[in-house]
């Protein structure tokens, strides 16, 4: 049997309002994560590791840093016809920007026409997980249906926070429910429900026909999860793919089937804390299924006399000069000075934490300067007086290029 032709589309045009102020100057998929990565690197690594090497990334809002990152980092072999390419909104269907995730693909139909694939993979750009997409593709082909939706198992008691899939034992989706008050259980596990991961695979002919139909519907919101998938469900042409069946090489028992939506500040912060436990919830050190990115050309991290770093990720170019770092993630070029204390923090590129500073439960965006003796994340009123955002769980966020004032 001939190898099927596959085009992968990564939807990276969202504003990411709930991640403000981290998205004040960048698209959500371009937000740094885990020290050296950006959020989009996880979806793209899954594609490339799955040998899906024709990838279009649809961008829209504040996309400059995202486009630059993709162009510089994700260079594929043109000799073999492989590519990862950013595709901005081009108004091919008229003088308007993308009206929704389905409209983004509808307006980019030239990509499908040019590549002429048998199957189209449509994934989101900003979740943290590992997945062998080929296994889902094989399951989709075996189903014989037009569409497949990847799903994670969540406790039924928590399922009202998700888009929920109601499917029978044959895996054909009966209903697609948005945050239902009484979520259905699974046939093999009544106390669990299937929650959509926002990852889809389509057979080309039926998908194009559905996009064309939806594009002409003035009442549609032109959303993948809100319109396209329910339309396939109504035709009984949509299957669920159980993420727990996906087997990724090198996965540990603890991080197998790990998936996190990092759409809020607290979820983003908690996902970082998952990286740094002794046995991490998500293991960045799996060399059999690596998360790929462009690494800055900097020397290794340096620790001077009396410096400490425990349960932390300290990346290249960092200098800990007599300070203490605990349960934190430090991006390249960060400097922590003498007698400074950094605990449960995410500190991004080239930030500086001065002598005798205390920084707790905080996210410092790029190029932040905390002058000598200043405290962050200690006094909520002081942080609010500085105009900093404080999350529901008490995480202080210091915006990019800020010099923190003493109050």
Architecture overview:
- The structure is a single chain.
- The strands form 5 sheets. Strands 1, 4, 5, 6, 8, 9, 10, 11 and 12 form a 9-stranded mixed β-sheet that branches.
- The chain has 407 residues and is of the alpha/beta class.
- The longest helix has 12 residues, at 204-215.
- Helix content is 21%, strand content 28%.
- It has 2 domains: 6-266, Spore Coat Polysaccharide Biosynthesis Protein SpsA, Chain A; 295-398, UDP N-Acetylglucosamine Acyltransferase, domain 1 (3 Solenoid).
- The protein has helices spanning 40-49, 64-73, 101-106, 109-115, 133-143, 204-215, 224-234, 265-275, 380-385, and strands at residues 6-12, 32-33, 37-38, 54-59, 83-88, 119-124, 127-129, 147-155, 163-167, 173-178, 192-203, 238-242, 259-261, 302-303, 308-310, 313-314, 319-320, 324-326, 329-330, 335-336, 341-347, 352-353, 358-364, 369-370, 375-376, 389-390, 396-398.
- Strand 4, helix 2 and strand 5 (83-88) form a beta-alpha-beta unit.
- It is built from 9 helices and 27 strands.
